[in-house]
Design goal:
The protein has 363 residues and is mainly alpha-helical. The protein has a domain of 75 residues. 82% of the residues lie in helices and 0% in strands. The protein contains 15 helices and no strands. The protein starts with a helix and ends with a helix.
Length: 363
């Protein structure tokens, strides 16, 4: 009975901590989202700042120069797609008219085949659903909030890199009995963050170049914008690529007179995604974030529910750090194993793929 009571107490304490932690992260997103981004970018940009510091440049100046270089790169990319973004916004009424016309044609064909009257479906102006005052006010509010958060991130980056020795000393004092374990955890977590961010930046560049070349060859007007959109949305695993591909295929469908180009776009984007998942990401990013797919999907959904798009993107390295933490806490190792990707698969009989692979290996 005492054992059962102790187990119930642990479950109750765990549930309370989990619930309070989730509520704090949810209501404190204005504080924690830019702070988390600042921590991640601090790990990613620290090697550049450290290199400058080793060249006898004062630490504060080295950090400022690093941030300036990073900002110039970001503004350069933004300038490449800025003009196309403005042009796309100007073409929205025309695109909406094309959508209405094509929708009317397809509904007419369906009405002739089924005998149902579907003409009233086209009476609603679909653009008004997106451009009504309530949606515009919400969009302006969210944009202002995002710009404010983005403005705070460089300050966090500067302070986190500048006070790195201070944080190291704090970890040493807080872990006087297990300095080696704490330092090893901090180093492994830093490697996960750095390798993930730098690797995903490279993957984003490669995917944008591949998609941009295809969009340019088939004559898509906003090829740079769509290429960057595909690459950035690819940072959200599974979900992002579906949303971005669907929107791009819809645009190709509306701006062409045949189904060949939308289908070709679907096949090409699917091929790029397969190449990115099975070749580019394993080679560039590596296997530092060794988390199984189920944990990744749950982390994406939970991160999206708490922090929106930022939570979806940050969920992968955060779940990787959580696994590293659980693996190093006595008694919590099984939960770290539960998040990992090393697990046995016991099948009753050898499946077809294994038999085929074994047969080719013999040849």
């Amino acid at each position: 009975m005492n054992a059962e009571t102790g187990l119930l107490e642990k479950l109750a304490h765990g549930s309370i901590i989990l619930t309070l932690g989730t509520l704090i992260l949810w209501y404190g997103d204005f504080i924690f989202v830019p702070l988390t981004w600042g921590i991640f970018f601090a790990f990613a940009l620290y090697p550049v700042s450290d290199w400058m510091e080793n060249k006898r440049i004062p630490r504060g100046l080295a950090i400022v120069l690093t941030l300036v270089l990073f900002t110039l790169c970001f503004l350069g990319i933004l300038s490449l797609v800025g003009n196309q973004m403005v042009s796309l916004l100007a073409d929205i009424p025309e695109i909406g008219a094309l959508f209405q016309a094509k929708l009317a044609d397809y509904l007419k064909d369906v009405s002739e085949l089924t005998g149902l009257d579907l003409s009233n479906w086209t009476e609603t102006d679909l653009l008004s659903l997106f451009l009504n005052p309530d949606n515009l006010n919400q969009t302006i509010f969210n944009t202002g909030k995002s710009l404010t958060l983005i403005g705070i991130i460089p300050l966090y980056i500067f302070l986190l890199i500048y006070y790195k020795d201070f944080f190291t000393a704090f970890l040493m004092q807080a872990s006087s009995r297990s300095n080696e374990k704490i330092i090893a955890w901090a180093e492994d977590s830093g490697k996960v963050i750095h390798q993930y961010l730098v690797g995903m930046a490279k993957v984003t560049l490669i995917v944008s170049v591949m998609a941009g070349i295809y969009f340019y060859l088939v004559g898509i007007k906003f090829f740079l914008l769509f290429a960057m959109f595909i690459a950035v949305m690819n940072l959200i695993p599974y979900i992002g690529v579906i949303i971005s591909s669907a929107l791009v295929i819809l645009y190709v469908f509306l701006t062409t007179d045949t189904l060949f180009y939308p289908l070709l776009t679907l096949l090409v984007l699917w091929g790029i995604q397969l190449m990115e998942n099975n070749l580019i990401t394993p080679v560039v990013v590596g296997g530092k974030v060794k988390v199984n797919v189920l944990a990744v999907v749950l982390a994406i959904l939970l991160g999206g529910a708490i922090w929106g798009v930022s939570g979806m993107i940050l969920s992968i390295p955060l779940i990787g750090i959580l696994k590293i933490t659980l693996d190093r806490i006595p008694g919590l190792e099984p939960y770290g194993y539960l998040l990992g990707d090393e697990f046995p698969v016991n099948e009753k009989k050898e499946n077809f793929w294994k038999l085929l692979k074994r047969r080719f290996e013999k040849k």
